[in-house]
Amino acid sequence: AAVPTGMLALLGTLLWAPWWALDGAPLAELSGDQDFQLFLHKNLEFTRKIKGDVAALQRVVCDTFQLCKEEELLLVRQDLGITQAPLEQCHSRTFQAEACFSQIRDGLRAYHGSLAAVLELLPGHAGLVETLQLDTANLSSNIQQQMEDLGLATVTYPTEGSGPLPAFSSHFHHQVGGFFILANFQRFLETAYRALRHLACL
């Protein structure tokens, strides 16, 4: 079913606003679309699960390699070419539902690929990494399907560094690369989660 134009306009108004400003937003238009609300609530839970699995892997990297604090590794990071998948369309003044959902979907696909480096790094935790990859792919597919169901146009944004993973010059660089892939993914998920949560609270 197509989404009424008014609903898309309301989505835009809400998501570019600062998060603190959303609490007083008008609720009537969005709350009426039960399918959209069900999608948001289901994928909030899914995103929360993925965040928990990323956090578990971050603890493994900390325990195994003593790589725990980002500020201690920033100099090494500059050599690795690992970038954060963008999500600025989820809170920009020119917000469009298509753009925000497209960036979440594209970012999930990029991190799904990046997790291959984490899998190589932590063979003893392959089950958890593979579950995370599967969940990441499924959440991306859910968002793609919902966009199609809502009649939203698919937009593909070029993501920096979304090509092949960097060739790590040493095992230590591989370890630090894995650390930053997980740290970036966790930040990405936090932003995506906030966007979904505030829509679901309407």
Produce a short descriptive summary.
By secondary structure, this protein is mostly helical. The protein contains 7 helices and no strands.
Please explain how this structure is put together:
With 202 residues, this protein is mainly α. The chain has a single domain, classed as Growth Hormone, Chain: A, CATH 1.20.1250.10. The chain is built from seven helices and no strands.
Question: Which descriptors would you attach to this protein?
Answer:
single chain, 202 residues, mainly alpha, Growth Hormone, Chain: A, disordered N terminus, granulocyte colony-stimulating factor receptor binding, IL-6/GCSF/MGF, growth factor, signal
